[in-house]
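re the bet — no i am not wrong, look at it urself. input seq straight from the record:
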Amino acid sequence: MLETTLLLVAAFFAGTLNAVAGGGSFLTLPALIFVGVPPVVANATGTVALLPGYVASIFGSREDMEPAPGLTLRAVVLISLVGGVLGAALLLVTSDKAFNRLIPWLLLLATAMFAFGPQLRQWATRQRSANAHPSRARAVAGLLLVSGYGGYFNGGMGILMLALFGLLGQTRLNAMNAIKNLVSTLLTAIAVAIYAAGGIVQWKEALIMMVAATLGGYLGARGARRLPPAVLRWSIVGIGLVMTVLFFLRG
């Protein structure tokens, strides 16, 4: 009963975090490890558990959905699927030791990018002013890299994605958040299929967590639309810093 309660609570708040900023796997991963699941398997199982929450977050933020400059909605879908396949396949051949070493550094990079998002966008604007047309190649390459990261490791994916959209010139945080929810759902769906085929999912724990993650994802997406942009931005930065520090301490 204690383990089940822990997984349910972690999944609910993970679904909420993913809908608002990303990083929900920071909660699901430690919870699953605490109940005895190995790290790589815990990452895959937590990803499966969060899929319904991602789907719910799309419905919660659908009014604000708008692709970043240089991308169409169709391109976002196709690139996300390709990147997700590559990243998930890479996880299947990664050892627990290597996986643990990479996590905090990837989170640190993602948080720093979003924290300095306004400055990075100003730099990107200056670069675009020299070239009248936004670079579609850069947008495609950036989304492909972030999608590969998301297929490999779900933690911090939302923060990295928001940072990318800011670099591409998207200025409305709610629009960035909505398209992030769409990409996260696509990445999670393809990753789940590959993880399941690779036999690294513990379905009992995944199914227990799905219901709570779905509720958290919908409520989080609706609540994010009511937050002032400044509050939302610095909440995202704060979540990223906490995740980074705790993963470094975890070793």
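see?? DSSP finds eleven helices and no strands in the chain. told u. also The chain has one domain: 2-250. so pay up
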